[in-house]
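Standup notes
- DV: blocked on the single-chain target, sequence here:
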Amino acid sequence: MKSFFEEIGEKIEQALEKEVKKILKKIGKEKIYSAALVTDSDCITLFLAVNTYEYMKKEDARFLKGNADWFSKEEIEQIKKGSINLSKWIPDEWGYSDGKNSGLVEISKLLFEKEAADSQEYEKHKDLFLETVTSAFQHVIEANVFGENSDEITYFISMSDDERTSDIEDDSAKLLNLKIVYEKYHEEILRDNEFWEKKCNDH
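- DV (later): unblocked, structure below
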C-alpha cells in the first residue's frame, strides 16, 4: 500500500500543477485567499477548491438577499464588513474547482478501484492517504504554483461530511501555512463557529 500511495502522491502533484494553472486563467485579476484539497470520509475522491475575495462577497450577498430574515441588522453589517464569514471557509461554496475531466478525477478513479479491491486493507491506511495528500499539496505550494502572492493564500485539506473534518482542516492548515496566516485562519474559524453555534441555539 505504501508504494501505491507514493505513486499516487506523484500523480497528485502533477495534476495539481496542471489544474492550478487552468484555474488561475479562469480567475484572472480576482484575488485568491484560499485553496483546499478536498476528499471524502472514505478517502476515495479528491478535488481542488479555490476561492477569491470577489466570489466570496458575491456569494455572501446572494445568501443574505435570500435569507435576510435569519439575521439582525447588526449581524448583516458584521457580515458585510467581514467580521463574520458565511462561505469563506466552506470549500463546497467556493467559486473555482478542477474540471470534470481533470487529473484529480482520474486519481479518484484509481483510489476507488484500490478501495473496492480490498476495502479492509484500504481502511487501515487512511492516515497514510491523508499524509500523502498533504505532502503533495505542500510540494505544490512550495513550488509557488499559485503565483507570486502564494504566501498570502490560506491552504488546507478538507474532508466532506465527517466528524474529523475540523481537526483535519486545522492540522493541515497549521502545517501548510506560515504561522501568521494559520493563526488568522484559526482565529476566524473559532469566531465563526461560535457565531453559528449561538445562532443555532437561538433558533
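- Follow-up: The longest helix spans residues 2-27.
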